[in-house]
């Protein structure tokens, strides 16, 4: 890391492996280069950063996202009306199933998966609806040298088939978030199982239960036991942090080294979030 002293913000870590709350900045205003550099350094160091009390219009949310790169238009889920690059993540009081309610890394089913996701809370339950995050660097660091050597030679197949394909989870889901169930022709992409972060140079596991189907060249049945073992390591409690939302809270996570999980423990209450997703590069 180039430096760890922030000139324009205050950074308070949330847990030893990941997560930090940032204060002293208003994201509705254009950021100076010094502010952006500080936020960027905190993001690389803590992998998921949180801000409180941010009042953002959709345009201001998009402008913050564009400081990080180009923005994604989700291939399967309908966008906010008039804003193709914003996903409205809504669970109505009458609904039972939420969006993102399982461990995953956003858009790993693309050839060039997402760099980061920026989630802004509009309306949240009185209690519940927290989001959990897990460091995939920490999962990698704890593995034995023997297993690491094996994993470094492996690639894995990612696809949205089990979410958005025929009979996938989205076909049974939410009334409030339209998603297109795309049939049997869901593309598959191959990524290395061990990812070297393009900015920090650190290694982390890059597989996830929602979108990783199997190891390349292995059958699904052959892949399952090793994937299940790795998934168990990837979500170990000491490698996680948990964020309690308030209206106006904003989180940005690094999909290159973090999993997340939207808890679904608030039936009967409404939760309304907006997500902007920053495009990433080919996984190396
Ligand atoms: C997601 O992007 O997976 C949803 C996260 C959340 O709603 O907390």
Describe the structure.
There is one protein chain. It is globular and about 50 Å long. Strands 1-2-3-13-5-15-4 form a seven-stranded mixed sheet, with helices on one face. A three-stranded antiparallel sheet has the order 12-6-14. Strands 8-7-11 form a three-stranded antiparallel sheet. It has 284 residues and is of the alpha+beta class. The mean pLDDT is 94. The longest helix is centred in the last third of the chain and has 15 residues. A hairpin with a 6-residue loop joins strand 1 and strand 2. It has one domain: Clavaminate synthase-like (Double-stranded beta-helix, 4-Layer Sandwich), CATH 3.60.130.10. It contains six helices and 15 strands. It binds succinic acid (SIN). The site of succinic acid has 11 residues, from strand 5, strand 14 and strand 15.
Q: Which helices and strands appear, and what pairs or packs with what?
A:
Elements: E1 10-13, E2 20-23, H1 33-46, E3 48-51, H2 58-66, E4 86-91, E5 116-123, E6 131-135, H3 136-141, H4 145-152, E7 155-159, H5 161-164, E8 188-192, E9 194-196, E10 203-205, E11 212-215, H6 220-234, E12 240-243, E13 250-254, E14 258-262, E15 271-278
Parallel strand pairs: 2-3
Antiparallel strand pairs: 1-2, 3-13, 4-15, 5-13, 5-15, 6-12, 6-14, 7-8, 7-11, 9-10
The protein binds succinic acid (SIN).
